[in-house]
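Protein in question kept in full:
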Amino acid sequence: MAPEAISQAAQDHVAHLTEQANGRYTITPPSLDNRLRLPECPEPLVTDIPNSNSLSGTVSVLVRCEPLNWQIYVPVRVQQVLNRVVAKAPLPRGSVITAADINVEEIELRRQRGASFSAPEQLIGSKVKRPVRLGEIILASDICLVCRNDTVLIKAGNDGLSIITEGKALSDGSLGEQIRVQNNRSKKVITGVVSAVGEVTVRY
């Protein structure tokens, strides 16, 4: 059986899986030794990826011919690409991020080392906690949408009633994180969730 046919079967299997997954994928066709010779399979080749939940990096696809009882593992290189916000210029600690500071680029998933952002509006107005170099992915741990001692809007209430007041953040927080804030009027310390730049939501 021609090595090209075996490689194509492995590539087709991975391509089918990536069509059902999130993000964009690039698949590098496997290269098998041209000297490889296996008996021609009288039926369509069967493909599988045993013991693997990942579609990133090198994926070993098992290609087998059931009637003739032969099988071979074929390595297929897969890269998952996602849109992620990166620094368009060096961002020093303490700087406030503007639209001019950031850009959206396609990044291979393996380069991401923490929670990141897919849209600029998710972090415009946030403050940089640690320096970010040109071209680096901006991680949630690099910024705070609400920073310690910042004046914040506290939105409190339930689905039917909402009260807005000012308070002081007692810790740093990124989007979706819980932080403690102090109500400026009552001086009461409460826990809320960072819902936007300079905004904390409290549910009752």
